[in-house]
Amino acid sequence: MDELANVWPRGGLFAFSGVDGATCHGEPFVAAGLSDALGWRFYLKPGVMLTLTAGGVALVPRRTSYDFCLSDCWHCTVSGGAEGRVDGAFADRASLAIRVALDTADLEPQMLIEPTPTETESGWLVKGEAWWLAFARKRSGSHAQFGVAISYANADEAMSRACAARDANLDSIMRERLRFYVEATVPESLSDNARRAFYKAASIQKVNIESAQLDIPCRWTTPDRMPHRHMWMWDTAFHALGLQHLDTQVADEAMRALFVKQRADGKLLLAVQPGVPDREEEDTQPPIIAWSLCHQSERSGRTDCLQEIYPSVVRYLEWFERNRKNENGLYGWRVRVNADPIRCARGGESGMDNSPRFDHVTRMTAVDLSSYMASEYHCLAKMAHCLGKGEEVAQWRHRRNAIAERVNELLWDDEDQFYYDLNEDGEFVAVKTTAGLMPLLGEIPDRDRAEALRMHITNPKEFWSPAPLASVSMDERDFSRDMWRGPMWPNVNLLVYYGLMAYGFFQEARELGRATLREIVNWYTRTGCFYEYYDSMGTLAPPDLPRKGGVGEKGGVGFGVVADLHWTAAVYVHLTHEFG
Fold first, then answer.
1. Rounded CA separation 6/136 (Å)
2. 488 secondary structure, DSSP code
3. pLDDT tens digits in sequence order for the chain, 580 residues long
4. What is d(CA 247, CA 244) in angstroms, rounded to the nearest whole number?
5. Which residue from 443, 507, 536, 550 has the fewest beta carbons nearer than 10 Å?
6. Residues 515, 519, 520, 524: what is their CA dihedral angle, to the nearest 10 degrees?
7. How many Å apart are CA 61 and CA 12, to the nearest integer?
8. 61: helix, coil or strand?
């Protein structure tokens, strides 16, 4: 196991995976790795921190070549309070087992629990808002095994689970957790840190899989278990691209799960959760489902999932026709213009929440949405052809061609040689963002316009930043390091990568793909985490970037740049397989 991910994830994700057994969305047991010691911060209200110590001093991970730190199991050499090693794994959805073996005989492993717990005959308890977190320990000199468990029912159940984890056969549990990684197909071209990062990406993908439960009859995916706990639409399309390389059955289930809660009118909501009735949610998310399905089908050669999902994909695109199509024949996002709980998120439906393209509009014709629709119809035509639905192929091609014609007619600025949104008055929203590159994905530009976009992409004063691509061109007044106002987004880079490939810009596409992978590996080796987005200037650590105005808990709705985001892991897995 001397090639697995071995960097302790500072702020990174720890959880139990639906690959290994039943999960429970309504009773989360998720943690983040501490930044300065071997320990965890549990996502609970109020928060709970557990630090492993010896002699009153925190144990610190050392990162040796034979260590591994995955999102559901770990083996860490430690120093600090004492030399030794720490093994651990999630035993199930509600408990984890931790074993500490110190090299110093006169010290005993201990837990520092904050807030101070209540001591009981069997261990320790922390009571929160409708939950109980229990801690149990058995010790033999300088060796100890701990059990940590949660219950949303009562203290006795929490303590019973903690004692079971304390007494569990941890070696057996770890072998079971590691099976997923041992069986993973790793691209032969990867070595050293890039290879370790692949296993980290695989672990992020694994623990963001929830089991079937309540009204979702198959496994499904989340963006990060916490804080984005639910199933999100365009996130899932990216997740499946990575999962197809790790477990094709789970990838298929993730795509099927998207349509379990599809509304009668065809709409897919921004986010859904098991057992909870659909709320009156106005937003949807970017339509890239047919695009994702085509990539998976072309790689695997299988059509069973396409056959099942095709009618639902048609209904979902028809919803966009009825609800997001403007009078000019193109499409526009719903712009949030009223008071909204997500600060600075006027463009939330687009996925580009706080992009400057939304700053001064109330309605729009969106270049990215129109391009996504062209891409979806192009892919739907390929799906129809694959399924023997020849009479529908021409229909989808006609729709795709009509969109492309209108995008070129209305959204291309001859002076700037760039595609822009239109505002409610039909005027260009003249700020260069990666949204204006999406026509490449839809194969909309002619050769000259595609060449112009290639020049914008590779210009080191515009999008080709030190860590490309900048989400806002660096020569724009609104360029900054805040979320969608400048940072690099791996998922967008993947879309642009395929847009460049479609036009034969193979060298530029590969340079972009490899630059994306390098930046992910760079920060993984420093922090042990994959991130939601990265500093396009290549200098600031992702946790130090602002998120909708603030850094850390002052950003967004009380959290900063998300660590161990699922689609970043999926992009890493997918691109590494693209490059072999």
1. 27
2. B
3. 679 999 999 999 999 999 999 999 999 999 999 999 999 999 999 999 999 999 999 999 999 999 999 999 999 999 999 999 999 999 999 999 999 999 998 899 999 999 999 999 999 999 999 999 999 999 988 999 999 999 999 999 999 999 999 999 999 999 999 999 999 999 999 999 999 999 999 999 999 999 999 999 999 999 999 999 999 999 999 999 999 999 999 999 999 999 999 999 999 999 999 998 877 778 999 999 999 999 998 888 888 889 999 999 999 999 999 999 999 999 999 998 875 545 558 999 999 999 999 999 999 999 999 999 999 999 999 999 999 999 999 999 999 999 999 999 999 999 999 999 999 999 999 999 999 999 999 999 999 999 999 999 999 999 999 999 999 999 999 999 999 999 999 999 999 999 999 999 999 999 999 999 999 999 999 999 999 999 999 999 999 999 999 999 899 888 999 999 999 999 999 999 999 8
4. 6
5. 507
6. 150
7. 14
8. strand
How many Cβ atoms are within 10 Å of 509's Cβ, its own excluded? 22
Q: Give the E-state strand segments of 30-142 in sequence order.
A: 31-33, 39-42, 48-54, 57-61, 68-69, 73-80, 84-92, 95-102, 109-114, 118-119, 124-127, 132-140
Rg (CA), the chain: 24
**Beta bridge partners of residue 220, listed in sequence order:** 210
- Structure token pair of residue 385: 């052809």
Contact 442, 375 (CB under 8 A): yes
Residue 158 backbone phi and psi in degrees, to 5 = -60, -45
Q: Which three-class secondary structure state does DSSP give residue 508?
A: helix
CB burial string 472-499: b at 16+ within 10 A, e below: bbbebebbbbbbbbbbbbbbbbbbbbbb
Quote the CA–CA distance of 389 and 385 in Å, as a whole number. 6
Supply angle C-alpha 1, 513, 6, rounded to 5: 20
| Amino acid (one-letter) located at 214 | L
- What lies within 8 Å, CB to CB, of 369 at 6+ separation is 286, 287, 324, 331, 332, 333, 350
C-alpha 43/C-alpha 49 separation (Å) is 9
CB 71 within 8 A of CB 203: yes
Residue closest to 33 by CA, chosen among 23, 21, 44, 41: 41
Structure tokens at 197: 């990062």
Tokens of 345: 């998120």
Residue type, 269: L
Token digits of residue 285? 């998310």
Under DSSP, is residue 551 helix (H, G, I), strand (E, B) or coil? strand
All structural domains of the chain with their residue ranges? 13-182, 324-445
pTM listed for this prediction: 0.97
Q: CA distances (Å), 143 to each of 69, 78, 106, 420, in order?
A: 20, 14, 11, 63
